[in-house]
Write a structure and sequence with these properties.
- The complex is a heterodimer of chains A (about 230) and B (about 180).
- Chain A has about 230 residues and is mainly beta.
- Chain A has one domain (about 45-220): Aromatic compound dioxygenase (Protocatechuate 3,4-Dioxygenase, subunit A), CATH 2.60.130.10.
- Helices cover about 5% and strands about 25% of the residues of chain A.
- Chain A has helices at about 25, 195, and strands spanning about 5, 35, 70-80, 90-95, 120-125, 130-135, 140-145, 150, 155-160, 170-175, 200-205, 215-220, 225.
- Chain A is globular, with a radius of gyration of 19 Å.
- Chain B is mainly beta and about 180 residues long.
- Chain B has a single domain, classed as Aromatic compound dioxygenase (Protocatechuate 3,4-Dioxygenase, subunit A), CATH 2.60.130.10.
- Chain B has no helices and twelve strands.
- In chain B, the strands form three sheets. In chain B, strands 3, 6, 9, 10 and 11 form a five-stranded mixed beta sheet that branches. Chain B has a four-stranded antiparallel beta sheet with strand order 5-4-7-8, with no helix packed on it.
- Chain B is globular, with a radius of gyration of 16 Å.
- Classes of the chains: A mainly beta (about 230), B mainly beta (about 180).
- Chains A and B meet through helix 1, strand 2, strand 10 and strand 12 of A and strand 7 and strand 12 of B.
- The structure holds fe (iii) ion (FE).
- Fe (iii) ion (FE) binds near residues 152, 155 and 157 of chain A.
């Protein structure tokens, strides 16, 4: 199946250089990016990445005596393409801070305690309807060491492969109603308000599910449309 | 539907996601890839020349016959079953990445090449570029006429190609918007 990739609306994507985010002016090209028409090379890409990487599953909240500290939550995500068609069988990588805002990573300092029952990394494959479910704890906010009061709001990181090279996506998901959302320099690097809103998960009022978990829903849309019959 | 906005990988991408074997493309599902085994290696640096550690590099390329392992390639039924075509590496403290792969053939209408993606803290969007083995007529190379030498890997040894990636500054690598 051939895929069509169209140029994106720049207002729906983050600025490359962000005031107050000191690494961005050192790491983003000075020269304008070169616009190119995708060829077969960019309109193909790795399928079945699950055969090359280790899957870790989508249940990272722990169980019983080894349960992670924090608010248990279920996140239901659907991965779609620009036609709204499900992207099934694709690898999704997920990482997040623990409930105190601490990552298990050599780069994270000791601003908050680690949780021995929370590693914070999931890796799974979407089902045929493009869906996956993550059982986790709600991540905490954490301060960025810029020294000027920037805190990252609670967020979850995603890396998604999709069907072709140009559908590859790295993004972050935010939570509704968080006061820190309004001042976050990464979320607000996206100029279009509606596009920012689409990065925020939907809160689903609890209906007494057996695990008493908070429930959130989210949608991830990858680049790409199916090529239809040629127009006359 | 409108594609989701990108965001940076951030400083905390889990180290376990870049497993040691993911930069070796010379075998797949117990089979050896056909073609000449080569190493592609390079250093990734930011504007001040400082090397960047734990930066994630991913590549995608055709097999030795120039076929992509993907149904959109009209020749994909003949793709090498021992070659997956995708790999991932993280840079070391000197900013160096290494891939072991095979020299790709020429896809229809293109020079042999390897697609690169760079993901890192401070990159709100993935940076994409393409490495070539030598100069020649190619629709992508022709777009960067005055900087095309920066997209051509250097043959350091018979089976070692070096391709440094400069995110910004002197000899800045051309990146593509597509
Ligand atoms: Fe984060």
């Amino acid at each position: 199946m051939a895929t069509i990739i169209r140029p994106r609306d720049e207002r729906t994507q983050p600025a490359r250089i962000v005031p107050g985010y000191p690494q961005t002016p050192l790491r983003n090209p000075r020269e304008p990016l070169v616009r190119r028409e995708p060829t077969l090379s960019e309109l193909t890409g790795p399928l079945e990445v699950a055969g090359r990487v280790k899957l870790l599953g989508g249940d990272i909240a722990g169980h019983g005596a080894a349960q992670a500290i924090g608010q248990l939550m279920h996140l239901r995500v659907r991965v779609l393409d620009e036609d709204g068609a499900p992207v099934g069988g694709t690898v999704v990588e997920i990482w997040q801070a623990n409930a105190a805002g601490r990552y298990i990573h050599p780069n994270d300092d000791d601003h908050a305690p680690p949780d021995p029952n929370f590693y914070g990394a999931a890796r799974l494959v979407t089902d045929e309807s493009g869906a996956f479910e993550l059982r986790t704890v709600k991540p905490g906010a954490y301060p960025v060491p810029t020294g000027d009061g920037w805190w990252r709001p609670p967020h979850i990181h995603f890396s998604v492969f999709g069907k072709v090279w140009l559908s590859r996506l790295v993004t972050q998901m935010y939570f509704p109603g968080e006061p820190l959302n309004a001042q976050d320099r990464i979320l607000n690097a996206v100029p279009d308000a509606a596009a920012r809103e689409r990065l925020v998960a939907r809160y689903v009022p609890p209906t007494g599910n057996p695990h008493n978990a908070l429930v959130f829903e989210h949608q991830i849309v990858l680049r790409g449309k199916a090529a239809t019959a040629e127009q006359p | 539907m409108i594609p989701t906005g990108e965001a940076t990988l951030g400083p905390f991408f889990p180290p376990r996601y870049v497993d040691a074997a993911a930069n070796d493309l010379t075998q797949f599902e117990g089979r050896k890839a056909q073609g000449e085994v080569i190493e592609i290696s390079g250093r990734v640096a930011q504007e001040d020349g400082a090397p960047l550690e734990n930066l994630v590099v991913e590549i995608w390329q055709a097999d030795a016959q120039g076929i992509f392992r993907h149904p959109a390639d009209p020749r994909h039924a003949q793709a090498d079953p021992g070659f997956f075509g995708w790999g991932r590496a993280a840079t070391d403290k000197d900013g160096r990445y290494v891939f072991r792969t095979i020299r790709p053939g020429a896809p229809a209408g293109r020079q042999p090449h390897v697609n690169f993606m760079v993901m890192f803290s401070g990159l709100l969007r993935i940076l994409k570029t393409t490495m070539f083995f030598e100069d020649g007529p190619d629709p992508v190379l022709s777009l960067v006429s005055n900087r095309r030498n920066l997209l051509i890997g250097k043959k350091a040894e018979p089976t070692l190609v070096t391709f440094d990636i400069r995110l910004r500054g002197e000899n800045e690598t051309p990146f593509f918007d597509d």
